[in-house]
Amino acid sequence: MSKAQSIVRLETFPNRTPTGRPSATAAKKLAQYLAYGRGSQQEQAERLARGTWRDERGRRVSHQAVMDWVTAQGKDNQLTYQFILSARDVALTPAQYGQAMAAGGDLFPEWRLIRHQDAQHAHAHALAFGNKAIRIRDPEFQLWWQQVRAELEQLQKQYQQTEQAPDLNQQLDQQPAVEQLDARLGHGWGLEM
After folding, report:
1. Could you give the 3-state DSSP secondary structure of residue 128?
2. Does 193 map to a domain?
3. Using CA atoms, how far apart are residues 104 and 92, in angstroms rounded to an integer?
4. pTM
5. In 6-130, which residue ranges form alpha helices assigned H by DSSP?
6. Which domain holds residue 115?
7. Cα 95 from chain centroid?
C-alpha cells in the first residue's frame, strides 16, 4: 500500500478569558488571520482575501457572515477547533475540501472552510466549535479522522488520474496534425491520403 500523502490536523483553542468568562476574541482573530493573513487590521483591510469561505453545505459565505458566526459560536461554545487539510501537491477545490470534511460524518456538524493556495502546499482551514475536548486517541475522533483522510486520498488519486489523462488526449489531438503533415510532405504508410 502506498504511503498516505494527505494531512488532517486539529488544533483546539479555548473560548474563555483568563478569568473564565466566555469570549470569542481568539476565534475572531483566527478567522481574520485565515482570511487576510498577518498584520494590523488596516494592513489586512488593504489586502484581498486569501480565499473564499464555504459552509458545511458547500455554499459560499461572506467574510462578515463568518465573523458573525464565529462571534456567536465562540460565546456559546467552550472550544474552537481549527482543522488543516492538505493533499500535499494536489490543488483541490474548496468543494473537494468540503467533501472531505463531510466524509467524516457529523462529529463536527457545522463548520466554515477556507482554501489557501499561497503556501508551499495548497491546503484548507476549517473552523468548528464545541464543548468537548477532542483527544487524538478518542475512537470517535479517530474514525472521523480516518474517513476525512481517506476521502482526501481518494480525491488526490482522482486528481492525479485526470492530470495524466490530458497528456493522452493531447497526443491523440496531435495525431491528425501529424497525418496532415505527412500527407503534405508525401510521407505516410503507403496508404492513399
Report:
1. strand
2. no
3. 17
4. 0.78
5. 25-36, 41-45, 63-76, 94-103
6. 7-165
7. 8
